[in-house]
Specification:
Largest sheet: 3 strands, antiparallel
Structural class: mainly alpha
Strand order of the largest sheet: 5-7-6
Helix content: 40-55%
Strand content: 5-15%
Length: about 180
């Protein structure tokens, strides 16, 4: 959980317009010293030092006397930490082909390939609780965590036999043993 705390601290540090302007000035190479950063951001030197210290605490900036440099790779590391705790991360770990259709734990587009669509349906079905009758609203809320077009996923689940739907729009997950086989 430390990685999540680090990511949260980074986001909190970037929640200040002054710190964001400072990181931008240094990260783009427009400012390499505290004096340059003050001129570039329009902030007083004292304020630049204060904000630079906060960014340095998160690893985003490095101060060496008057020299200042940015380490933007820290942001990529924070994104990776957040990605790792997405509900889909463990589910996609063994399916790199399907994983290519996801970004930051969310589906970018429903794949055209039939076999991939079946695997996507299997994955989406794991987001729904087994042995429970769900309303369409509950199914939509769970699937929306995976993809903005939750209706498309809901139809995929029904079309591929991963859920059943009764006449009153109530859904149940079909147990894996009772599902139709994947296409060859």
């Amino acid at each position: 959980m430390r990685d999540i705390s680090t990511a949260a601290a980074l986001l909190a540090a970037l929640g200040s317009a002054d710190r964001l302007a400072l990181l931008t000035a240094v990260g783009t190479g427009r400012a390499g010293t505290v004096t340059d950063a003050a001129a570039e951001t329009g902030l007083p030197v004292r304020r630049v030092l204060k904000e630079a210290a906060r960014l340095a605490d998160c690893g985003l900036l490095h101060l060496d006397g008057q020299r200042v440099s940015a380490d933007l790779a820290v942001l990529a590391g924070a994104a990776d930490a957040l990605d790792a705790v997405q509900p889909t991360a463990a589910l996609l770990a063994d399916d790199p082909v399907l994983a290519r259709h996801f970004r930051h734990g969310r589906l970018r587009a429903v794949p055209e390939d039939l076999a991939l669509r079946h695997r996507l349906a299997d994955l989406a079905a794991t987001l729904l609780p087994p042995d429970t009758t769900l309303t369409e609203t509950e199914v939509n809320a769970a699937l929306h965590e995976l993809y903005d077009d939750h209706a498309a996923l809901r139809r995929l689940l029904a079309d591929f036999g991963r859920v059943t739907r009764d006449g009153s729009a109530r859904y149940r997950v079909v147990p894996p043993a009772d599902r139709p086989p994947l296409p060859g």
